[in-house]
Structure formats: C-alpha cells, structure tokens
Amino acid sequence: MKKNVIFAFLLLVSSLILNGQTYGTLTGTIKNPQGITISHAVIESKENLIRSFTDQNGNFSLRIPANREIKLTIFRDPSYLDTTITVKLAPNEEQRIDVVLPYNAVLLKPVSITKNVRDNYRILDPQLVTQVPSPTGNIVSLLKTFGGVYSPNELSSQYNVRGGNFDENLVYVNDIEIHRPFLVRNAQQEGLGFVNSDLTKSVKFSAGGFEAKYGDKMSSVLDVEYKTPAVGYRSSATLSLLGASIHTEGNVANKFTYLIGVRYKSNAYLLNSLQTKGNYKPRFFDTQMLLVWNLNSKWSINLLGNFTRNVYLFTPSSRTTNFGTIFEPQQLTVDYEGQEVDKYENYLGAMTLHFKPDMKNKYKLILSSYYAKESETYDILGQYNLADIEADLGSSSNDIINVAGISGTGSSLEHARNYITAVVSAADLRGEHKMGNHNINWGIKIQHEYVDDQLKEWTMTDSSGYSLPNNPGTPGEEVPLD
User: Fold this and answer.
1) Residue 413: what are its φ and ψ, rounded to 5°?
2) Could you give the percent of the chain with pLDDT greater than 70?
C-alpha cells in the first residue's frame, strides 16, 4: 500500500512539471547567397532533440522550449557551410528569422596551360596494350578510347576518325608508310595489325592538324618508332588462348642492332561465341625485323622487313535470332551449306639510308616496296524460316520457346571469286637543315602502284514468291530463267 502511494505521488509531480513547461515558435526562411530559397534544409538541436525541415519554398516552423537559450544548427549538403544560431523565446512568443547559408567554396590556385599548336599529337605508351582488355591486343585498342575515333566492330583493328573512311588513316613505322590488306570485309578475316607492341618505342597519334610530311590523307596519322636496343641481349615471350608472340633484340658493339618479332593469333574462341554457329578456323601469322648498321658517325643503314600470312576458313552451320516485340515475338532460323576460304599474304621490304654530314644537316633516303596477294572465295547457301513464337513457361524441357507458326521461308546463295595482286614501290628523299632557331624540312617522293583486281561475286535470293535477280518481262508473264 505504501509503494502504491509513492508511485501515484511521483506520477502527479511529473505531470505538473510537464504541464508547466512552456514553448515558443520559431519560423523563417533559408536562402543561398543569391537569394534563392533552399528546400530540404535541416534545422536541429541535438541537445534538445529538436528537428525540422524546410519545405519546397525554403520555409520552416519550429516549436522550442521557452526561457532557454537554444543552439540550432542549419545545414543542407556539402556544397553549403553549416550555420549555427542561438535563440531564446518567451512563453508563447512567435519569432521569425531569415538565414543565408554560405557556399562551401574553395579558392583554387591559378592554372596556366601552354600548348604548342604545331604538335597536335597524343603520345601513347605502347606498354599499356597489355593492361587494356581488348580482343585485338594491339595499339588500335588504345586509339579507340580517344574522342573522335570510332570502330565498327570490337574485333576489328580498323578505325574511323571524325566520320572518315578507315583507309583514310595514315600509318608510319620509322617514317615508312604502311599499307593494309585490300580485300578484308570485316573483323573476322583481319588477323593482326601491323604494329608489334613488343618492338615499339613510342607512338604518336593525331586526329587532324598533322604535318604535311605525312601526306595528303585527311583523317589521321599514327606515327610509330621502333626501339633501338641497348648493349646486350634481351628477349620475351607471351602465350595466351588467343595466340602467342616472341621477340628478341640485341646490340653488338654499338655498330649493329637487331629487332625480331614473331606473332601468331587464332581468335576461334571469340568467333565461336557469335550468333552464326559453325566451324571457325582462323590462322594469322606475322614476323617482322629491323636491322640497323651504324657504319660511322655520319652514315647508317636501316632495313625493315615484314611477312604476313592470314588464312580464314569458315564452314557455317546455323543461326537463330529472336526479335520483335513482347506482344509479337518472332524467330529467324537459318541453316547453311558451303564454306568460305580467304587468304592474305603481304610482304614489305624497306631500306633507309641516313646521312648526317654535320650538326646542322640531315638527309634520309627511303626505298620501300609492298607486295600483296589476296584471295576471297566462298559459296554459302542459307535457307531460312521466319516463325511466330510463344513462351511455354510450364515446359519440362530446357527450351521454353515454342513455334506457333511459320510466316515465311526462303533461301539465299552467295558466291565470290575475288583475287587481287598489288605492288606499291616508293622512293622518298628527305632533308632537314637548321638555321638558328628555325628548321627547314623538305622532301621529294616518287611512288608507283600496280593493282590487278579481279572481282566476281553475286547473290541470288529466292523468297516468298519472288526471285532476285530475275529476267525482265511483262508483269504476270512467265519468263524462263537463263
């Protein structure tokens, strides 16, 4: 009985204390230094467990204990500095304040940027090729990361710059112009790019505004310089599921240096993941060498050689593609017969004679010859069915797609016998003369091109009641095909 009386007394006292506590009302608006109201700002006092938020117009209303100094912290996000105010209100007093939250600004030191407009080039580190994931594994994988450079296929070593065609891009290795295969149709047959990163010292790339010495093609220029080996011997080897590469280099008494690189690639594992199923047998081989003789302090001879052989064999079997909308799904199934066999052989030989009579003059004579023998042959028959499909979620098998009906059938036969032989020979004489702070560069180049191109290809399509190509005649008249 005594405990119950004490509990009732304490309850009565606490009720009187709570009823005796009085409050005031604080209202206001939160703005930024430009006078724009700030929504969702927080006004709080952690000591007194008080918190409120501004509305969409930056207004707030807060009920706080009277006759006490209350510290309120106002904050929004890291872009504003926190602000603390102290208020004291009388019982039932209503007070209005406007608060400006200052920006959390940091004064940066001045930055000076200087650019030489004549050197409109990007410098690349060839060692980054091993760090950038890419199916091609060559320098082109780095170029594709630059603005204005576009590649139509991730497997391709070709690239377009600012809307230009892929054959408008210039490639130079030690000032020798590099030519590319002519008959390559897409990335599957390309093989290896010319530039061997194991032999590369430096790479410069310009997407426009480059010097006239590179020629008259308008898209871009890739200028590659191969290494000059230090004294001694060095070699490396790389092996992966997509191929292998090995290189060796050496310097003999600072008189003779050599760079030799051999590469092999087969991207069959990547091609087997394409929608068109079949037997892919791509084999790409490349070997390069750079030999340098330093005859004396004035004369030196460089020899650059390259041999490339790419063979692409493909026997397609089938392809299934689902498309359409969620309400009208469709499926295209194609069965193939035939095969494609492509062969590309390229040879490059170049000799560079350097002559430096004194510190002010340099002369260079470049003799080069490029030979290409390429063939592209295929006979592929594709027979297709276009069907309406539906999903059978209750199917016990792994295939939940059922064919509801065939809406079209047809066939297409593609034939090609394309051959090309090309020989490009050039003689290039260049000179450099220093006059004080100025350099004078001049050059004379003679180039002869021989191309024997034989193209014979056709496609016949027989589908949905018509055949292309067909013999012309009166509409409705039956005309026998030749």
Assistant:
1) -115, 125
2) 83
Q: What is the dihedral of CA 469, 472, 477, 481, to 10 degrees?
A: -50
Class of residue 37 by CB neighbours under 10 A (exposed 0-12, middle 13-18, buried 19+): middle
User: In angstroms, rounded to a whole number, what is the distance separating the alpha carbons of residues 192 and 276?
Assistant: 22
Does the pLDDT value for residue 299 go beyond 80?
A: yes
| Alpha helices per DSSP H over 137-263 | 140-143
User: With 80 as the cut, is the pLDDT of residue 186 above it?
Assistant: no
Tell me which amino acid residue 86 is.
T
Confidence of residue 29 (pLDDT cuts 50, 70, 90): very high
Which among 130, 266, 274, 120 has a CA at the least distance from the CA of 196? 130
Secondary structure element (H or E) that encloses residue 178, with its range: none
In the block, residue with structure tokens 């939160």 = 30
> What's the length of the chain?
482
Name beta bridge partners: 99. Answer: 30
Helix (H, G, I), strand (E, B) or coil at 48: coil
**418-431 pLDDT per residue, tens:** 999 999 999 999 99
Residue 150 CA to residue 156 CA, distance in Å, equals 11
Cβ atoms of 282 and 192 closer than 8 Å: no
